[in-house]
Amino acid sequence: MKLKIQKEAIQNALQGIQGIVDKKTTMPILSHFLLKAGKTASLMATDLDIALKGPLDAEILEEGGLCIPAKKLFEIAREVEGEILLEAQENNWIKVTSGKSTFKLMGLPEEDFPALPEVTKSEELTIKAGTLKDMIEKTIYATGESDTRYTLNGLLMHFIPKKKEIEFKVIGTDGHRLSAITVNIEGTVTEEKKLILPKKAAMELKKLIEGSSDNITIYIDKNHIFFSTDDVVLTSRLIEGTYPNYEQVIPKNNEKKVVVEKIAFLKALRRTSIMSREKTNAVRLDLEAGKITLISMNPDIGEAREEIAAEYKDEPMTVGYNARYLMDILQAMEGETVTMELQEPLSPTLLLSPDSKGYICVAMPMRT
User: Residue 23: is its pLDDT beyond 80?
Assistant: First the structure.
């Protein structure tokens, strides 16, 4: 195998797989990517749960294939200047030449690379890259980090067939807060489906489609989901298990409503949370006609108090939240105002924005 490639082309391609190749693995092959040169050049990377396969713009001088250490070649590509020549040597070594710089890396044979799942094209959906990226950004912060409730460590992708379109929902929750966004997309699914996409796969997908204006095609099979764009295919194993019934968590009949300017609320939360306990980030909200008073107390440090204007017409009420959870929600919301719908001090709070259509968030209050 022998090929010439521009520095930017190899650097960008390798940057795109750094989050997928497993650097701490006990299987050395997973820290490598497979470079194949035939009529065209392509690269593949996997950690056995996520895989990425894509084309590489290169001048092919000799065909072949080799597994190459991904991190080291990326570091080389980043530092050299000008065109790079990759040349396979005996015993799986690869020679990397650029200008007067020469490197030799020990590779692994092509046959050692794990087989990637084949794309199943029986059920196919289409969504704009920007829409999918927005859906991930608006929900991923709410996913869990817990090993015990592993189904919460990913995003639920809920596909509901309608007459002419598919209703597509993405949901993230960690049991303390929930974010859900709904759009209509084109495609065919034979029945309602609920799939759990691992958080890492969602992050890699978001990176892959960043800045793209193309359509993303989604294919589904029993254990995997495939996202395809521009001949690049990201494959992810699905998390097995049953996702909680998220619809039960979303409050339906909250009677009390508070409308507040989003940026003013966010800044006030940032300031008052400085004095909250680090473990809980607890901030108390005293709701009164026309205003919210934010209060945080820490017996070891002191307290903070701030008042902001708000539209509120019900009887006074005190409710407490983890300030970080509220700030995450506000940062994901679009528009100038946010509406909080409440019932009781410890019942779920619904957060909505008139400029974030199809997007709802739920925050569980804390005892104050």
Answer: no
139 and 243, same domain (yes or no): yes
Separation of alpha carbons 166 and 360, rounded Å: 19
Mean pLDDT within 66-85: 96
Whether 219 and 260 share a structural domain: no
pTM > 0.90? yes
Provide the number of structural domains found in the chain.
Answer: 3
Last residue within a domain, chosen from 248, 266, 285: 248
Q: Which domain holds residue 105?
A: 2-112
Residues 256 and 322 in one domain: yes
Claim to verify: residue 238 and residue 255 sit in the same structural domain: no
pLDDT at site 342: 95
Q: Give Cα separations from 41 to 37, 61, 64, 165 (angstroms).
A: 4, 11, 10, 37
User: End of a domain among 191, 224, 248?
Assistant: 248
Any idea which of 112-121, 153-162, 284-293, 300-309 has the lowest mean pLDDT?
112-121
Q: What CATH number does the domain containing 21 carry?
A: 3.10.150.10
Q: What share of the chain is helix, strand, coil (3-state, %, to 5)?
A: 20, 45, 35
Residue with the larger pLDDT of the pair 213 and 194: 194
Give φ, ψ of 2 to 5 degrees. Answer: -150, 130
Quickly count: other Cβ atoms within 10 Å of residue 147's Cβ.
Answer: 7
Q: Are 308 and 268 contacting, i.e. CB atoms less than 8 angstroms apart?
A: yes
Separation between Cα atoms, residue 275 and residue 301, nearest integer Å: 7
Q: Is residue 117 part of a domain?
A: no
Does residue 368 lie in a domain region?
Answer: no
pLDDT digits (tens, 9 = 90+) for 273-318: 999 988 889 999 999 999 999 999 988 899 999 999 999 999 999 9
C-alpha–C-alpha distance, residues 141 and 331, integer Å: 10
> What is residue 253's predicted lDDT score, i.e. its pLDDT?
87
Tell me the percentage of the chain whose pLDDT exceeds 90. 87
Query: How many Cβ atoms are within 10 Å of 122's Cβ, its own excluded?
Result: 10
- Alpha helices (H) in the chain, listed in sequence order: 7-15, 70-79, 129-137, 199-209, 246-249, 262-273, 323-332
